[in-house]
Amino acid sequence: MHQVVAQTIHLSIRYSKQTGGGFSRQKKIGRASNLSQDIFPYCLTILHTHDSGMPIRSIPPFPF
Q1: DSSP at 39
Q2: I want to staple 9 with a disulfide (CB 3.0 to 4.6 A). Which of 1, 20, 42, 51 is the partner?
Q3: C-alpha angle with apex 6: 22 to 14, nearest 5 degrees?
């Protein structure tokens, strides 16, 4: 099995059907990692920077 690591974090958020819209952003991290404790803080940074406070409908998985 291959040890896959990433250096770019991609987060997509879709808001509820009533409000519509959402956002999709990427952020490059300092060093490549596949550990959630390394990746999660970057996801939170993206979320807190770009979220409009509307009800979130889904966080779709990124297709691999």
Answers
A1: H
A2: 42
A3: 10
pLDDT digits (tens, 9 = 90+) for 21-64: 899 999 999 899 999 999 999 999 999 999 988 999 998 886 54
Pair 34, 3: CB distance under 8 Å: yes
Pairing assessment for the beta strands 56-58 and 6-15 based on DSSP bridges: antiparallel
Specify the DSSP element, H or E, that contains 24.
strand 22-33
**Cβ-proximal residues to 30 (8 Å cutoff; 6+ apart), any chain:** none
- Separation of alpha carbons 32 and 7, rounded Å: 4
Q: Is residue 9 within 8 Å of 39, Cβ to Cβ?
A: yes
